[in-house]
Amino acid sequence: MELSVDKRTKVAVVTIIGSVDSADSSDLLEFLNELIEAGDTCLVIDVTGMDFIVSMSLGVFVRTYTRLRSAGGFLRLAGPQPFILQMIKTIALDRLIPIYDSVDQALQ
Questions:
Q1: Which of 46, 71, 88, 102 has the CB geometry, 3.0–4.6 Å to 15, for a possible disulfide?
Q2: Whether this model's pTM surpasses 0.85
């Protein structure tokens, strides 16, 4: 898993590339928590380059969403590949976290 962030004017765009397995969950949560603690309360997570994720790591998105929402911000996911999107829909995560086809759409 590779993580990077591009801080825009009001939104931080987090890019995840590769697979996110159980061992990566804590690293992902720590990365996102550090952004929130630094004051970034509006996040778009670009998952275009993510090719696999375990349900435990999807739980990190739920925890982050909850924390951002209570801080008055938001979390949006952008660009999931069909397999990832199917996983998101299977656990009904798309009912909680908005899903967009691209980062540009998520930023609007």
A1: 46
A2: yes
| Residue 108 domain-assigned (yes or no) | no
> Which one, of 82, 18, 93, 88, lies nearest residue 51 by Cα?
18
Q: Which residues, 6+ apart, have CB-to-CB distance to 92 below 8 Å?
A: none
Residue range of the domain that includes 33:
2-103
pLDDT digits (tens, 9 = 90+) for 63-101: 999 999 999 999 999 999 999 999 999 999 999 999 999
| Number of domains forming the structure of the chain | 1
What pLDDT digit, counting tens, does each position of 17-58 carry?
999 999 999 999 999 999 999 999 999 999 999 999 998 899
